[in-house]
Every structure is written in C-alpha cells, then in structure tokens.
UniProtKB/TrEMBL annotation, chain A:
Organism: Arthrobacter psychrochitiniphilus
UniProt cross-references to Pfam families, sorted A to Z: BPD_transp_1, BPD_transp_1_N
Family note: Belongs to the binding-protein-dependent transport system permease family.
Keywords: Cell membrane, Membrane, Transmembrane, Transmembrane helix, Transport
UniProt-recorded name of the protein: ABC transporter permease
Primary localisation category: membrane
Membrane topology qualifier: Multi-pass membrane protein
From TrEMBL, chain B:
UniProt GO MF annotations: ATP binding; ATP hydrolysis activity
CDD domains xrefs: ABC_NikE_OppD_transporters, TM_PBP2
GO biological process: transmembrane transport
Listed Low complexity bias regions: 310-322
Provenance organism: Arthrobacter psychrochitiniphilus
Gene3D superfamilies per the UniProt record, alphabetical: MetI-like (1.10.3720.10), P-loop containing nucleotide triphosphate hydrolases (3.40.50.300)
The protein's name in its UniProt record: ABC transporter
Record's subcellular location: Cell membrane; Membrane
Length: 313, 616
C-alpha cells in the first residue's frame, strides 16, 4: 500500500508539472501582442520593447517556465500584468468559493445517485425505465442553462434565495448555504444523471455475482447482503466515474460562477482571459489542475483501500 | 456539461454484433432512425439558413427590440431588435460547426492512436496512454480560457484545441476494441495469409470499431456542444457572429428585463442534445441485441408463480422432452421418509415467446444419510433445479409449478423471512466455482462468522471459535491464518474447503452440492470428495450431488437421477443403474464416461448436443 501511495503521488506531481508546462507553452506561443495589450495603442516602440523585457518575454520559453516553476513550488505564482498584485493572493481568496460549489455538488449528487441507482437496480421494471428517461433528460440541457432557469424561477419569480453573490462561510452559515443552493443544484442535475446510471449498472453487475448467491444461501438478511457486500463491491467502479465527473465539474463551475456572480476561480479566470492577464489565467488553470489531481488522488487511495489486493501488496 | 463520458460503456459487448450492417441496424431501431432524422433536419436548416429567413442575424434595430412572436418575426426579436429565428438558424453554424470540428479532430487523433496502440501494444501503447491520462485530467474549459487569453476569440482554433482534449476518449475506446479484435482468429488468418497491415486494419478492424465510434461520438457531441456554447455564454466568443451560446449570454445580461431570451437557444440545444443521446443509446441497444425480456420484480414473479401453480398440472408430458424416448418407469419416484421431497418442479424464465421452462416437472427425494447424484450434460437443468430448491434462482427465473418440501416444511409460498431462516440451518449450498463464490472484499473469517451469528445467534467470540473449529474440521492446516486471509490469498482447493465449512457450519438437514469438484485439480478433487463423504456420515445429512461425472457418482452416491432437457429420464440405485441402464440417454452417458472401454471412432448414436467433460 505504501508504494502504491507513493506511485500515485508521484504521478500526480508529474501530471501537474506537465499540465502547467502545456498551459505555459500555449500562452506564451503568441506573446508579441502582450506589451501592446497592456500599454495601449499610444505606446511607443521603445516603451513596448521595455515592457516586453520587463516581463521577461524575451527570454527563451523554457527559461521563463523554469523561472515560473521555481516560484510556483514556493507558493509564488507571479504577479498580475495589469495591477502587479500577487497571483497567489488573488487566487487564494477564490479557491474556497469554487471548492464549496464543487464539494457541495459531489456530496449532493452522490447521495441522490446512490439512492436512485440502487432503487433502479433492485426494482427494475417501470420504475427503472422512468428513472432512465429522467436521467437522459438531466443530460439534455447544459448546466448553465438550467442555472438561468433556476435564477429566473426560484430567485426572481418566487424570491426564495438570493439570485447572485456569495456569503463566506465565516460570515453566516445560513447565508453561505443559501448562496450555494442554486449553483449546486444546477450542477448536480447533470452529475446525478450520469452517476446514478453508473451506480445502477455497478449494482446490477455485483448482484449477478456468484458470491451474492452463496451469501444468500447462508441465510444472511437482504439488508446485510445489499448494504455490506453489494455496496462495498460496487463502490470502486462508481468512484472511478466520480473522479471523471469531478474534472467535468471544475469546467461546469466556471459557467455557474458566471451566472450567480460567485467570486470563484472560474470567474477570475474569465475576467483575466477577457483582458489577457496571462499570469492569472495560468495560475487559475494550474490551481484547478492541482485540485483535480488531489481529488483524484483521494479517490485512488480510497479505491486502493477498498481493494484488499492493492491494500495488502 | 457535468457528466463524464465513460468510453467503456459505449462499447458493445460482442464483436460479432458490430459486423452486421450498420445501416440496417439503425433502420431496425425506430428511435435511432427518428433521432437521426431530427439531427439531419436541423443540420439542413442551419446550412440553408439564408433560404429560411430574410433577416440578417446581426443587423440590429433598437426600435424593434424585444418584440413577441409575430408573422414578421416568428420567434420575436432580442434586446437589440435582431430577429431571433434568424439568429437561431445562423447561430447553429457556429455552435454545430464548431462542435463538428472538435469531434472530427478528436476522432482523427483518437482513432489513429487507438488503432496503432491497440494493434502494436508495448511502449507505444503505454506512452500514448500516459498522454491521454494527462489530457483527461485537464478541466477543459480552463484550458480553452488559456487559449482564448493568448490567441483571442477564434471559435475554430479553440474547437481544434478542444478536439485534442477530447481525443483520449476515442483513443481508449478504439484501443480497447482493437486489442480485443487483434487476438481473434480471423485477424490471425488474415495475417498468416499475407495481407498487409493496412489492409488488415482497414478491412477487419475498422469494421469492428465503426459502430462504437459513432455511438461514442454522439454522446461526446453533447459534451462538445455544451462546452462550445459555454465558452460563448461566458462572453468570450466573437460577439459579431451569432451562436446559441452568445444568445444565452445576452439572456444572462438581460436576465431581469427579458428572461424569455433564454428560451429558444435553450430549446435548440436541448433538441440537438436529446437527439444525440437518444440516437447513441438506441443504436447501442440495437447493437447489443438485448433480448426483449422484461425482468420482473420479485412480487410479480411470486404472483404469477402462484397463478401457474393452480393452472399447470404437476405431471409433465415426458415424451415431448426426452427426445422421443419415454422416461424409464420409476423416474419420478420420491422415496418414503425423504427429508427433501421435490414433486413436479417446473422452473421458467421469461423469453420472447412467453415463459420458457428450463425444468419440466422434476421429482426427486433424498433421505437422511443418503446421497443422490443428479447427473446430466450442461444445460439439462440440474443447476436450475438446485437453485430452485434453495429459493435462489437468478433474477427473472421462478418456480412455475410443483412442490418442494424440506424437513416437512413446504417451500413455495413460504415468506421471504421464513425461507431465509431455513437457509444454512435446514438446507445449505456448496457452489461450483470456489474462487468466485467468496466475496473478494471481506476476510474469510468474517464471511464465516456473519452467518453463524445471524442463524445460530452466537456471540462474536463463540462464532469465531466455531468458525475456526470448522476450518480445522475441513482439513485446513492453519485455521487462524486462513481466517485472517482474503479470498485472493488462498488456493482454489482451500477456498472450496472454506465454502464447505460455511455450508455445513449450521448443521443443515439437506446439503445441495453443485458440481463441487469440477473447478478443482484432479488430486484436490479426490480429497474434497473424501471430505464431503466424511461430513455427510458425521452429520447424517441428505445430500444432492449435482454432477456430470459418473466417476463421482460411482464413488460417492447411493442413488442417481439422470436429467435431460429439464426432465429426469431415469432414477435408480447406483448399483442397478450402472449394471443395467434402461434409458438410451443414460446408456450413452455411461458409455461416454467409462474409461476402461476401447477408444471409439464415433459415437454409437447421434446426440442432440455435444457432450463435453463427460469423462473424468
């Protein structure tokens, strides 16, 4: 198990390094217009050249990357090109917002999917058919469109929860929950649609295993067969889908933050993209990759722990 | 947008099904044909946009802002007075065109790498796999934001990059199928007969992957369309050209003034996505050739079982099933004093033409201290009979007639709880495959202790002591160590001993052993049979030994019943049956199974099914 953990952590680090390099290369492959972009149309050629040199853009790209990487491992993601603020500081305030949405969605969608998936797997028949149709419907509309509908209906028409804005957890617990309700639900609909199908098919697959019949032949109660043995064995494939889901969730959250005006990683990345503030964009992308890697690492570790063959090797 | 695509689920199960005509498959599935028609209609409308509307989608007229639908403006106008209908049909060009570009790029890359990685394997495979794992872990909108920040808004560029990010899905799908196909015989044959690599890949492999790719592309299309319109929705697209995403961005900006603006682009996205999902799912269903069998819930199965009990006569019509040969008289005898008595048992499964019976009126009985061999070839209904006695038929299967009595208790009609309390204590089960019959996630000790506590009400300490004693009794050298092991840590022979220990732990009256030695090595087989004989004597159990092996019967059993096509054709004591088999089928099985005969060049009489594994 120890070597398994180290292997996973190692590949996670390699992934973050490779991803940050790809993003860096993408951004700097087209950097001639950067100085013009910052200084405006009035700037002279000399001013542009000076700015270009100041930002280090004349160095070879690999050098710029290593320079950035050296700072990044010490927690310094550079400075905004426009207002010279520390990118690490700017992003640090944004991470809790995005994490609140993402983790909230994971919790809500997992609970609903497990219940729906198991019920569908056990009872099959018309209930199963109905749930399948409903879950296809959940995939039809993009999350951000559902978010728009929810804002118009729940917030504007019915006035139930605030339409936009974010209340930090430390300020007010109920305010925090209220400000998360609609964003989480608009993301969870699509997540449930995919995940409940996965729980359903994993549960059906385990129910057809030989050992389930043998466990039943020993007179175990249906509850202990289902909740102890079947769920335990259906968990690993479901967790694997959850880790893919989480990556999609980090994408979906960008649009959702926009709809609800939430100050998360996505919205700062979108704003920085609009003006071309490359260090912020790079920082936001890398942080979200790091979050994905950490979550996937956790899921891998849970999966490894659930599997005695991995745990004991 | 938040759903992840799982390539494996898009792959049909059998490779042969994929080789049937794709066109006829689509035509045979009405849902697939209809959704494909809807998609074609929308694409055509988008291409022919200038013919459908006379309005320029980008010309604004503030005086005409936010009008409702009218003969002039079919879907009304937006906040800048532009015609919504023309923006929808023209906007589809960006949304659907961009999505198509991303899909084509993803397919071109993923299919190529998948073909080569799957066909050649090795270092190429593992390095492409590493890259595809990297790409999968990137949150794609974030990467597209980076592209937009550096290169400006260019839908074709960002969709090309997005295509690269989507390629791993196609790669994994194709790679999995190709590495499966590569090992199939017809590909070997093509290689041996000197066909070039490109011909093999093009002819044989591409045909096998075509349908799964189309299915996956349909479902990936939903993701791509969501991301493309998502980017535009963020206001990062080219604002001078309409797309469904930019239209939704306008709806967001004007959310309080004109929430209705979200309606039409949302419907357009919804219709296209629904058509793609339904097309992909119904094509997959058509390819999987799912039998149109509706699985029933247990309650309805019980009801129809009761109904059938009343209607179906317990007596079978033997001649119809025994291949023209009537069963030998005495075939349905249930000895007096049987602790397990089965009379006229029928087991049915739903099929395309109603309930199909796989067990057709089986009667058998076993007394205490007696071992009955239940013999027959694969598919003769032996195992189904065994499962029916235990009340553990797979989903869909049910007892459609007859009676089962164990220790005086009549089983069909018994409540679930009452049946459960009999399992283990009155009737127990030893399965065929030792390794697949232990839960891989739990220690062996736990799997033994759990039923002891439930069925005998033992304390944790007593149950553990009893489990250890049982492991010792079935001849396991180091009970404590096995107790603390997981199933993957022990051998098949040991696993079968563990399963035997579990089966006899609660001292059942009746033991059903379903080919308990078939999966074991020959040396281990003899040991396990010895163990079963000892335990049977010691606990004075009635045993039903399901087997296809007359060696086991001769070795172990007192009486033997021969099954064919869901019926017992002959039943007698082992001595009489071996000395003087009456039924031709019995004679044939015996001749096929006896070792000391001179080898034959052909079977004496035609058999309707090949006999496998009839010999020891």
């Amino acid at each position: 198990m120890i070597s398994y953990i180290f292997r996973r952590i190692g590949s996670g680090i390699a992934l973050v390094a490779a991803a940050s390099f790809i993003v860096f290369a993408l951004m700097l492959a087209n950097s001639e217009h950067v100085a013009r972009n910052i200084l405006g149309d009035q700037a002279s050629v000399e001013q542009l050249a000076a700015k270009q040199a100041e930002l280090g853009l004349n160095d070879p790209m690999i050098l710029q990357y290593l320079h950035w990487l050296l700072g990044a491992v010490q927690g310094d993601l550079g400075q905004s090109w426009f207002n010279a603020e520390s990118v690490s500081y700017l992003l640090a305030t944004r991470v809790p917002v995005t994490l609140s949405i993402a983790v909230g969605t994971v919790i809500i969608s997992t609970v609903i999917s497990v219940v729906v998936g198991i019920v569908a797997a056990l009872y099959r028949g018309w209930l199963d058919k109905l749930l399948q149709v409903v879950s296809v419907a959940g995939l039809v509309f993009p999350g951000f469109w559902l978010a728009l509908v929810l804002v118009v209906k729940v917030s504007i028409d019915w006035g139930l929860v605030p339409a936009t804005g974010y209340t930090p957890f430390g300020e007010s617990l109920s305010g925090w929950l209220l400000s998360l309700t609609l964003p989480v639900f608009s993301l969870a609909i699509g997540a449930v649609a995919g995940l409940s199908q996965q729980v359903r098919s994993a549960t059906i697959a385990v129910l057809e295993m030989d050992y389930v019949r043998t466990l039943r032949s020993r007179g175990l109660s249906e509850a202990s067969v289902l909740f102890r043995h079947v769920l335990r064995n259906a968990a690993p494939p479901t967790l694997t889908v959850m880790s893919l889901n989480f990556i999609a969730l980090m994408s979906g959250a960008v649009m959702i933050e926009r709809v609800f005006a939430l100050p998360g990683l996505g919205s700062i990345a979108v704003d920085a993209t609009g003006v071309g503030d490359i260090p912020i964009v790079v920082g936001a992308v890398v942080i979200s990759v790091v979050i994905v890697v950490i979550v996937n690492l956790l899921i891998d570790l849970i999966n490894g722990w659930l599997n005695p063959k991995v745990r004991l090797s | 947008m938040t759903q992840a695509l799982e390539p494996a689920t898009a792959a049909p199960k059998s490779a042969s099904a994929q080789r049937q005509g794709l066109g006829s498959r689509i035509a045979s599935s009405p849902m697939a044909a209809i959704s494909l028609g809807v998609l074609a209609f929308i694409v055509l409308a988008v291409i022919l946009a200038p013919l459908l509307t006379r309005f320029d989608p980008s010309v604004s007229d503030i005086g005409q802002a936010l009008l409702g639908p009218s003969p002039e403006h079919w879907l009304g106008t937006d906040s800048a007075g532009r015609d919504v209908f023309s923006r929808i049909v023209y906007g589809g060009r960006i949304t659907l065109g961009g999505a198509a570009l991303a899909l084509i790029v993803a397919m071109a890359i993923g299919v190529t790498t998948g073909l080569f990685a799957g066909y050649f394997g090795g270092a190429l495979d593992s390095s492409v796999d590493w890259v595809s794992n990297l790409l999968i872990a990137l949150p794609n909108i974030m990467i597209l934001l980076a592209v937009r920040a550096a290169w400006g808004s260019n839908v074709w560029l960002s969709m090309t990059v997005f295509g690269v990010l989507m390629a791993p899905g196609f790669h994994r799908l194709v790679r999995a199928i190709v590495s499966g196909v590569r090992n199939e015989l017809y590909v070997d044959a093509a290689r041996v007969s000197g066909l070039s690599l490109t011909r093999i890949l093009g002819r044989h492999v591409l045909v096998a992957i075509r349908a799964p790719i189309i299915i996956y592309a349909a479902l990936a299309g939903v993701v791509v369309i969501g991301v493309q319109s998502g980017l535009d929705f963020l206001g990062l697209g080219d604002v001078t050209v309409p797309s469904w995403g930019t239209m939704l961005n306008e709806a967001l900006v004007n959310l309080y003034i004109a929430p209705g603006l979200m309606l039409w682009p949302g419907i357009a996205l919804g219709v296209v996505n629904a058509a793609l999902i339904i097309f992909g799912n119904s094509l997959r269903d058509a390819l999987e050739d799912r039998p149109r069998v509706r699985r029933r819930s247990t309650s309805s199965a019980k009801q129809s079982a009761k109904k059938n009990d009343a209607v179906t006569p317990a007596a079978p019509e033997p001649a119809a099933f025994a291949g023209g040969q009537s069963p030998v008289p005495g075939f349905d005898e249930v000895p007096d004093g049987s602790v397990l008595a089965v009379r006229g048992l029928r087991v049915g499964y739903p099929s395309a033409d109603g309930i199909k019976d796989v067990v057709n009126g089986v009667s058998l009985g076993v007394r205490r201290g007696e071992i009955l061999g239940l013999v027959g070839e694969s598919g003769s209904g032996k195992t189904q009979t065994a499962w029916a006695i235990l009340g553990l038929l797979p989903s869909g299967g049910r007892v459609t007639g007859g009676t089962i009595e164990i220790a005086g208790q009549s089983l069909p009609g018994l409540s679930k709880g009452a049946m459960r309390s009999m399992l283990g204590k009155k009737v127990a089960y030893i399965p065929q495959e030792p390794m697949s019959n232990l839960d891989p996630s739990f220690k062996i000790g736990f799997q033994l202790v759990e039923p002891l506590r439930k069925q005998l009400g033992l304390s944790a300490k007593d149950a553990k002591a009893k489990a250890l004693a049982m492991l010792d009794r079935v001849g396991i050298a180091d009970p404590q160590r096995t107790f603390d092991s997981y199933p993957h840590q022990i051998s098949g022979g040991m696993a079968q001993r563990v399963l035997i220990a579990g089966a006899v732990a609660c001292d059942p009256d009746v033991l059903i052993a379903d080919e308990p030695t078939t999966a074991l090595d020959v040396t281990v087989q003899a040991e396990v049979l010895d163990l079963l004989r000892e335990l049977q004597k010691e606990k004075d159990m009635a045993v039903v030994m399901v087997t296809h092996n007359f060696g086991v019967v001769a070795d172990l059993c007192d009486r033997v019943a021969v099954m064919k096509l869901g019926q017992i054709v002959e039943q007698n004591t082992v001595e009489v049956l071996f000395a003087n088999p009456q039924h031709p089928y019995t004679r044939m099985l015996l001749e096929a199974g006896l070792e000391d005969k001179t080898p034959r060049t052909r079977l004496l009489r035609p058999v309707d099914e090949p006999l496998q594994e009839a010999a020891l």
